[in-house]
């Protein structure tokens, strides 16, 4: 306001000077507008770059899911024979372990659920650590789908008191994704069993007696027990940690298998399904 007042009240010479000064704001606005356009263009370029990177990452994830599912379908087609039920006989399921070991010598078994979640039907592997198969498939492809693997500290014959099996919870419903359904008792009531097949010809039936979320450091992951009392304490703990009481009996004479996967709750939580060996056939 003062600048404008001076321009109005001054002499001719001063008025001219005032007129000259009057052009300065226009130039500043022009420069300011130019800078604004530059900033806007930079923001636009950054937004496009972020979109492109996000789209690429999304494509990689979808591609990984597709490749992983395709691979496991091919492995199943090569090594598994299923014959439907008929004439009062249960469906027969057999695995060609020679073929599987030819693909991957780390093969120690096959796990499946019946009737649901039917998509959980995968080869089991075991190696000298618990990290290799987090990002490596059964056929040794680098893929975040990983593989279903047995805890490295367990014996590969499933005769330990507690054998732990790990698998990812993939967003395309593959691998161990559907273990989360066992948080609902109604799902367990319809699907209370899972099966493990071994290279020496055994078919082991497991009756699920506990299911629920635990922390990654919980006693659920114990594999060694000093004595029977310690093992009984472990069994009691797994029952207490279950989301519901199944009523399935478990004793110190039994062996169990714990299936473990991640959850949406947090990085520290895991979804576990624990089954007791009910029957073994050969």
TrEMBL record:
A single GO molecular function term of this UniProt record: hydrolase activity
Record EC number: 3.4.22.71
CDD domains: Sortase_B
Broad class of enzyme this protein falls into: hydrolase
Entries under InterPro entries matching the protein: Sortase (IPR005754), Sortase_dom-sf (IPR023365), SrtB (IPR009835)
Residue spans crossing the bilayer: 38-59
Entry keyword set: Hydrolase, Membrane, Transmembrane, Transmembrane helix
Enzyme active site: 168, 262
Annotated segments matching region Disordered: 1-34
Name of the molecule in the record: Class B sortase
Lineage of origin: Bacteria, Bacillati, Bacillota, Clostridia, Eubacteriales
